[in-house]
Amino acid sequence: MDVGYFIELLINGGLTGLMYSLTALGIVLIYKSSGVPNLAQGAMVMISAYLVWMFANMLGLPIFIAIALAVVAMFAFGLLAERLLLRKMVGQPIIMIVMLTLGLEIFLRGLGPGLLGAAPKSFDIGIDIMPIIYGDIFIHRTYLIGAIVAAVMIGLALLFFRTRLGTKLRAVSDDHVASWSVGISVERAIGISWGLAGMSAVAAGVMWGSEQGVDWTLSMLLFPAIAVVILGGLDSIHGVLVAGLIVGILGSVIPGYVDPIVGGGTRDVVTSLIILLTIIFRPHGIFGREDIERI
Amino acid sequence: MFYRLSGVHHTRYATARAIWPVPADRRMVYILLALAVAAPLYLPDLYLSSYLLPWLVWGTAALSLSLLMGIAGQLHFGFAAVMAIGAYTSIHLARAGVPFELALIGAGVMAAVIGSIFGAAALRVKGLYLVMATLAMQYLVDWTIINVPAISGGAQATLNTPQVSFLFVPLRDDAALYYGALLWAVIVILLVLNIKRTSFGRALVAIRDKDFAAAVIGVNPFKYKLLAFFTSSFLGGVSGAVLAFCYYQAVTPEQFGFNVSIQLVAMVLVGGLGSVIGAFLGAGFVLLVPIILTNAVAWMAALGWLNVSSNLLAHIPLMAYGGLIIGFILFEPLGLAKIYDNIRKYFLVWPFRHTQS
Q: Looking at the predicted structure, is the pLDDT value of residue B155 above 70?
């Protein structure tokens, strides 16, 4: 067995996994505060990549201003989504909420490419495409920077939950009614969590968009992100980090050896198996909190 | 008006237990059945084979899913995979020379067994986790079908259905194919209607409403959840086989992708969870509205009222479809079946506004 090949798969897998965590972070942020599983996160990543491309190429703004504008726009989008869609769903069964976010995902998947063109687009955020070569190991520069961004974002999220506003969000995630009774505006807290998820979607959209181009396939990131979230625990932020590494590494190392034998596409199988095995053996994930149900 | 009842008042248990307790409903069903049976006589072949036939088959598939999602309350986002298992099993059995009747049953059993294995794996969890587990099933089944040449016939392959006959009637011309689909639809409709009024159906409803509470009153949740998965997957598998033989007449893995699963869930939700008529209304709605909307926009663009690019036009179905799901969930969570029910209730008590009960 070639050790260099293995280490390359390991490192690039880990870095990709951290970039998955970037997408997964949004799902956790929303779930943590409102108990809503946001299946539209993939499309939100896609839309934010489209926005960055639109601001940068159609308005001709410098890329970092475009990114900042996209952050503002996605925060507003998150607030709007809460105000117009999620607020009406309080107390509805979970299937309705899941389907609502899925409907949003499908709608956005049509809206982005429909308005801005389906052909793949690209924007440049100034990352060298030459890989970093260390011995005989090639490390993808975008993945490395994406992983750093992901780690920083997760760290910021962890710190954020220690601030005053973050404490409010944690209270809301514990119990909506109890939060109301001590004067926390639950609606605003949920809106803010959607806004934050929109912001993390911009980070994911910029990194993935510069890596593989902007088109509808960006929304396919939803599937590995779900695996990360399920494995790490739906309400755990550091779970996202650890599970991202695991999903990325398994999703890179196993296909690296199995793909040549069976002919490709093993990555989705590994992701599916991670989801399935987690649900069978530890449904609440590695770090998640187990729900206790009453009649 | 046409119900002439001013409310439903049962005086005997037998009338309360009937499938269609209201005579007007029963007569309407007979008229609909007569219209459906006579359809090949008055409908052009195009409408018969490319609108009515797929609507019947998709409606039946949606009804099978509705049994699981609406009546038993178990979410399933991989139902297209179940149908794929049925379609591929039936096609391989038919090619191996097994009579078509047995091939259909084999398709159902195969789909039911695999469906319940995944169901059993997911029985510890519910709600969101069940969605994810069935989603994983969809990907696993898709991958297996595509990557095992013995099933799919090689990468990018299309398997044509062999010439078969059902109960000595060769399924060759449009009318025969249509009657095949109609027969299956009628069987499933009767089955689900009857499940809803038996102890099995009531046990499923108890599980849907709260499984712990159902366990307390003596309904075994594990057994009934598994039975629900088994029954629904059986029906779904046969529906997949019927879809392959009567409509597509060929199978490729893309016909049963993730999008199709979502489409089925959308049919069930738009139609109304657990409703028989809703499954068919929802299937018609989800199949037709994107087509109609695209044509309408294209027509308006041709008249010069709107200025849309062909690119936007190509994405209208997707947007319509997401918009439909969002709209129905926000404004009519019980779906088209509820709208139908409201109208029916209005006429049921006509000329009064309300009944006492």
A: no
pLDDT at position B6 over 80 = no
The Cα B340–Cα B349 span in angstroms is 15
In a domain, B249, yes or no: yes
Q: Tell whether A295 is covered by a domain.
A: no
Q: Is A295 within 8 Å of chain B by CB?
A: yes
The CATH number covering residue A55 comes to 1.10.3470
Residue A240's Cβ-count burial label (10 Å; 0-12, 13-18, 19+) is buried
Helices in B122-155 by DSSP H: which ranges? 128-147, 149-152
Considering its fold, how many domains does chain A have in total?
Answer: 1
Structural domain boundaries, residue B43: 21-256
Judged by DSSP in three states, B32 sits in helix
Instruction: Look up residue A87 and give its DSSP letter.
Output: G
pLDDT at B4 over 80: no
d(CA A280, CA B86): 25
Angle at A49 between CA A48 and CA A50, to 5 degrees: 90
Residue B291 lies inside a defined structural domain of this protein:
no
In angstroms, the CA B90 to CA B108 distance is 9
The answer to whether A103 contacts B122, with C-beta atoms less than 8 Å apart, is: no
Mean pLDDT of B280-287: 90
pTM of the predicted model as reported, rounded to 2 decimal places: 0.88
pLDDT tens per residue across span A229-270:
989 888 888 888 899 989 989 888 888 888 777 766 788 888
Tokens coding B75: 């979410």
Query: What tens digit of pLDDT does each residue of A78-126 get?
Result: 999 888 888 888 777 777 888 888 889 888 888 888 888 777 777 777 7
Q: Specify if A22 maps to a domain.
A: yes
Minimum distance, in Å, between the CA of residue A141 and any CA atom of chain B: 30
DSSP B171-219: --SHHHHHHHHHHHHHHHHHHHHHHHTSHHHHHHHHHHH-HHHHHHTT-
Q: What are phi and psi of A133, to 5 degrees?
A: -105, 125
Residue that has been written with the tokens 């005579």 in this structure: B23
Q: Structurally, how many domains does chain B consist of?
A: 1
Distance separating alpha carbons of residues A295 and A276, to the nearest angstrom = 27
Does the beta carbon of A111 lie under 8 angstroms from any beta carbon of chain B?
yes
Asked, for residue A63, whether it belongs to a domain, the answer is yes
Q: What is the per-residue pLDDT across B115-136, written as a single tens digit (0 to 9) for each?
A: 888 887 767 777 778 888 888 8
CB A212 within 8 A of CB A259: no
> What is the nearest CA distance from B60 to chain A, expressed in angstroms?
21
Query: Is B277 within a domain?
Result: no
B153, B251 in Cβ contact below 8 A? Answer: no
Which residue range(s) make up the domain with A64?
A: 3-114+129-281
CB contact under 8 A, A293 and B319: no
What tokens does B223 get? 């057994």
Segment A218-239 shows an average pLDDT of 86
Q: Do B322 and A89 touch (CB under 8 A)?
A: no
CB-based contact B159:B91 (threshold 8 Å)? yes
Number of CB atoms found within 10 A of residue A79's CB: 17
Angle at B242 between CA B241 and CA B246, to 5 degrees: 125
Residue A121 lies in a domain: no
Other beta carbons within 10 Å of A212: 15
What's the rounded Cα separation, in Å, for the pair B332 and A83?
18
